[in-house]
Amino acid sequence: MATDQIFKKDSIGERPLDPQAPLLSVEDLHVEFRMGVGTVQAVNGLSYGLDRHETLAILGESGSGKSVNAQAVMGIIDTPPGYITQGSVKFRGVELLDLPETQRRSVRGERIAMIFQDALTALNPVFSVGWQIAEMFRIHRGLSKKEGFEKAIELMERARIPLARERVNSYPHEFSGGMRQRVMIAMALSLDPDILIADEPTTALDVTVQAQIMELLRELQQETGMGLILITHDLGVIAEVADNVVVMYAGREVETGEINEVYHHPAHPYTIGLMDSIPRPDLHTERLEPIVGQPPDLMHIPSGCPFHPRCRYRKDRCVTEVPSLASVDGDRLSACHYWEEVMRERAHK
Amino acid sequence: MTEPFNEGTPTPLEAVEGLKTGPEASLWSDAWRQLRRRPMFIISAFLVVLMMLIALFPGLFNFSGYDPRDCPLAVDGVPNVRLGPSAEHWFGTDLLGCDYYARVIYGARVSISIGIIVTVFSTLVSLVFGSIAGYYGGFIDTFIARITDVVFAIPVILGGILILSLFRQRGILLVSVVLIVLGWPTMLRLARSSVLSVKENEYVDAARALGASNFRIIRRHILPNSLAPVIVYATITVGVIISAEAALSFLGVGLQLPAISWGLMLAAAQNRLRTDPHLLLFPGLFLSITVFAFILLGDALRDALDPRLR
Amino acid sequence: MGRYIIRRMLQFIPVFFVTTFMIFLMVYAMPGDPIRALAGDRQMSASTLEALRERYNLNDPFVVQYGKYMKGIFGFLWLDGDLGTDFRGQPVTEKLAAKLPITIRLALMAFGFEVVIGILAGILAGVRQKGFVDNLVLVSTLVVIAIPIFVLGFIAQYMLGVRFGIMPISYNARDPLFSLLMPSLVLGSVSLAYIARLTRTSLVENLRGDYVRTATSKGLSRRRVVGIHTLRNSMIPVVTFLAIDLGALMGGAIITETIFNVPGIGREIYDSVTHQENAVVVGIVTFMVIVYMLANLVVDVLYAVLDPRIRYD
Q: Which helix H or strand E contains B230, and what residues bound it?
């Protein structure tokens, strides 16, 4: 939108934005939560990047640190008990983690927006959806109440919500789950952010509605050219939409790469375990193989490779030495000491 | 590096790092463990137990040695009324010459008894009818809810004044009954909403699917799980009822002489603020501490039993 | 929303009738001689008793008695209500007219005090949990709640009035507002404690809500997130409480007016109880109960305004 150009300066505070730099660049991020009984290492050295037009999927179980990482990027972690102890988060070359709060706040909503899992609790129940969307314009753009509502209707239509004008004064609980999620998407896209982070956007929805929402996100991304980060534990949901994927385990990435490559030729035992544990009608498998064991206790992360207690390819080195990310093929990375053998083994099955 | 990977045996679960096994934690044992450590609980529990002991065995605690009903207006020609605190009479004497310490100690019995009786009965009634209303829903629920609404529409003190003022003889029984009748709506609503939220749980459906009778479901599944908020509220209610009885006696519609009640003592002393403040101080102090102890105990229980705060 | 209001009013009507009927039953239809009960310990001649019986319609059939009783109540709608008289013939309505204004003034002062300071204290405590203000509020409110209101009244009288002499210990007409200050502070104190705690708990709980995270990620300032988004949600239970609180305020007014010698209807009830003017007691209490029910109705509607989720219940 033209007016936005006036507001989208090319700097944050005094730091100029670099048009050549990637949209988002997360490097060696460490986040911990200090609770009375111990410290939870939620994110342990995570790195990834995002470009314009790119859809990045962050895949992992609950407790893998995927949501915490997003919150760190947005700067909405409650401190205490959460602390970002190490690492850097750069938006178009500008470091965000040490920005003063007022400037950090100007990034939220304006440059990087986020949508959450359960739209019923994520939206304020006592204000109408129009009011909540319009709020973005009233506060960030100085529009009047009436102008804000007009914008809200516009955005609701963009998110393909039928009868937007009639429903702009309705409350969140009056919408169905899918429609509510569209409201959240509309609200997040109000100010034309460069990046949209979607934290489990479809987990609370029915399968058919899931597909619609994913479709909507993809279309909107193509329209605006924004970067999209999809955080989920559901492999199927992102298969169609994502370009690249980062697989997370115990707070760090264990495998990254282009999504089809990772899906069809996984290079890490955890990813292999994930692929093997979902039903595949196209393959003639007799039984599903779950990954044995439990997700790691983040207060006491196993030594060496955090996956070693559950890994059937485990060797002695895995218990003592933390694997670094090895390049499997260009940008394809795997954090396994024995990724070559693992891939070979699997190819022979 | 050339050896084949051992694919056959999955790691035994127990050997997997991070898997926790240990003693079962139930809501109550967890709560008890938490409570034991909190100073708030220890202090309030101590005070509650102390006051209840005083109520049960006033003789033991009556260190003054005087009989609370033995009230000589003068001793050896010296007036014995409205004396201030002294070594002889720790809390002084009251308007009739009774040893005040003894009276305050004996006053505990009546006040706390009413508190406990009313709370126990209210709780029982509330649990029974609240579970029935919450569990069965429908007409029964509406019926009970309407009755509750009616009684709820009458504030406790007002209703107490209204009813009690019509009776010439008022003893512990009457006052207790009136307080039960006026007080159960609040507790019943609480019990009912607790039951309603427990009812939504899937283990209730599971029990029903396994063929358990309604009665059994209520008794073994619903009641134990909806008990926590009710118990917290009941503890607080004891304090509230003690306070209410004192208020009613103070206003002259509660207990009557020759009963010994803190409320009555305060009523008798209300115009003596300037001249004999000790007459207000001691019963007031004991009353406040008792009510405080019960409410604090309820608060501590609530913090320990609230699963969200853990 | 309109349907919600209508439904609430429909619920109100049976409760109103049943409650007034119950009061009627208790007083006029109890076994034994109600006139004896109304007369208390007074000695009365047979003719006086008979006159009273006539006055209170006790010679009429039950239904007629009830009818006249209800007529007396509904009479208020056209300002001709009848709630009985005392033994000297003064109608209760006259007493009400004379004394109600003072009680209303007292109650309003107490209400204003408890709402403003209670909510403020609750917000300050809730926003900075476990801080000094929070602990201070928690402890002090607990103490105030635990100490019965009349004990609080005596403490206030003693400390503020006798010891330090900064406020008059009882009401006097020469100084109508200032001498009502201490009674209204005492009257509002317990409710203030409840309101502060409730606001705090509600705020803390709402701050944990998901929508707070959403609001923050929209780039809104902390002040706006707490002051507008969270507060609106947090006020809902407080408003509900205010309805129940009115009942406590009424009971408290009786005690406070007695201790501080305020010539309001609370004091009137106390005096009537002491002098066994039971008819007056019944009349005033009936009046107060009806006011209480109406206030609850109003608050119920207010609740729907604040929380759109229940409008369709």
A: helix B223-251
For residue A294, the chain B residues in CB contact (below 8 A) are: 16, 18-19
**Where residue B290 falls among pLDDT bands split at 50, 70, 90?**
very high
> The domain containing residue C231 runs over which residues?
100-275
C170 assigned to some structural domain: yes
What residues in C contact B291, CB-CB < 8 Å?
146-148
- Is C194 within 8 Å of C211 (Cβ atoms)? no
Specify the pLDDT at position B136: 82
Rounded to whole angstroms, how far apart are CA atoms A268 and A313?
Answer: 10
From chain A, the residues in CB contact with C237 under 8 A are: none
> What are the structural domains of chain A?
19-242 (3.40.50.300), 248-348 (no CATH)
| Pick among A121, A126, A185, A187 to test the C interface (most C CBs inside 10 A) | A126
CA distance A259 to chain C (A): 28
Which residue among C148, C154, C289 places its CB closest to the CB of B273? Answer: C154
C138 lies in some domain? yes
How many Å apart are CA C119 and CA C196, to the nearest integer?
A: 5
pLDDT in tens, C206-262: 888 889 999 999 989 988 998 899 988 888 888 888 888 888 888 889 999 988 888
Q: Which residue is it, tokens 């920005």?
A: A99
CATH code (residue C240): 1.10.3720.10
Nearest CB to A312 within list B1, B5, B19: B5
Cβ neighbours around B273 below 10 Å, total: 19
**Is the predicted pLDDT of residue A228 greater than 90, yes or no?**
yes
Which of B113-134 are b and which e, b meaning 16 or more Cβ less than 10 Å from the residue's Cβ? bbbbbbbebbbebbbebbbbbb
Is B309 an interface residue toward A (CB < 8 Å)?
Answer: no
| pLDDT tens, position by position, C268-292 | 888 888 877 777 888 888 888 888 8
Predicted confidence (pLDDT) per residue in A89-136, tens digit: 999 888 999 889 888 898 998 899 999 988 888 999 989 999 999 999
Ordered by start, the domain boundaries in chain B are: 26-73+85-309
Q: Does C8 reside within a domain? A: no
Q: Which CATH superfamily is domain B26-73+85-309 in?
A: MetI-like (1.10.3720.10)
pTM of the prediction? Answer: 0.79
Give the nearest partner residue to B18 out of A292, A294, A341, using CB atoms: A294
Q: By the CB < 8 Å criterion, does A125 face chain C? A: yes
Partner A contacted by B18 (CB < 8 A): yes
Q: DSSP secondary-structure letter at A61? A: -
Task: Tell whether C266 is covered by a domain.
Answer: yes
